[in-house]
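A reminder before we start the practical. When you read a complex entry, don't treat the lines as separate problems. The point of joint prediction is that each chain is placed relative to the others, so the output describes one connected object in space. Small molecules and nucleic acid strands, if listed, are placed in the same frame. In the example below there are two entries. Take a minute to note the order of the lines before looking further.
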Amino acid sequence: MALGIAVVGVRGAVVGARLLALPARIATRTLLPARTTRRLANEGRASRLRVRAQLTATGGDLLAGPEVDAFGRALAEHRVVERVARPVLAAPAVEDAVASMLEEERTRRIVEQALDSHLAAQMTDHLLQSAELERAVEQIASSAAVRAALANQSSSLAGELAAGLRRRAERLDDAAERTARRWLRRPLRSNPA
Amino acid sequence: MVATTAAIQPGLSEGRVPYAGVATRAVALAADLLVIHVFILVVGALLGLVASLVGDLRPEWLVATLVGAAWGLTVTIYFVLFWSITGQTPGMRAMRLRVVTADATPPSSARALVRLVGLLLAIVPLFAGFLPVLFDSRRRALPDYLARTVVLYADRAEAHGVVTGGP
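Here is the predicted structure of the whole assembly.
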């Protein structure tokens, strides 16, 4: 960006100088002899070529120098890209544009083609064979939540059976005790539950 | 014996302590006996297989004595170990029962051994040793009388703060 500003500035200066020199050029064309005019024209062309070559060399020096790095660091430091991108992305027009683009039949076709492509299959294979995916699967499988869910699922039948048996047995506990106490005419126990 | 209840939960009336009844205890005992006998059957079959490869074990009285000793040892280790460590055998765990002493802790190994003797004595006369559960105010059977323990519904006992959770 700095380079662009510099180049534009130099070009502007050249144009301004040419505009300022326009009356003098007209005067010299009319007043000076033709030979002198040609000589001056040749010198002007040569000067223009020199300036152009000089500008090109200066641009190259600028791009090769540390200024570009400093400029990039300044962009990152001041978060220029984020500051510019945030309002742009937040604009309803952009959202509408993206939404309409996604709804387009052409977009759907492109996505389908990408998914059907050989590249997608290769990428999937690569992902499935990667150590990172294996590690991720291992971490998920060994997580407490997954283990609890599996244990809960596998023990649910046995747990339900045991719970049902417990309920029936506890009812039978009280019934048997009540019957025995009635036979012996003893007072019934109060239910602790 | 009155001290048992008072120590389990001071201020808690006897009727509020969730003592386990006869049916639940019977199911737990049946489950434990099933586990023990399946274990003995599997181990016995494996040993019999090995013995048949080596040669028959004789005389027969020796075999019967060894099998009886193995059964007695297995039963003793099973009950004494589980009662004294956790207060629950696997069958009792399934039925959410817990055997505790007066201070609401699992019985010691010696007390668990006494309780096992009581259990065998209760079973021998056609389970008549369990009849007191139906009449006793704390639902105690012969093993509980001998070992000075009670059997509680573990979940309700923990919910009422009668005993803390198992180890």
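Discuss with your neighbour: The mean pLDDT of chain B is 87. What might explain this?
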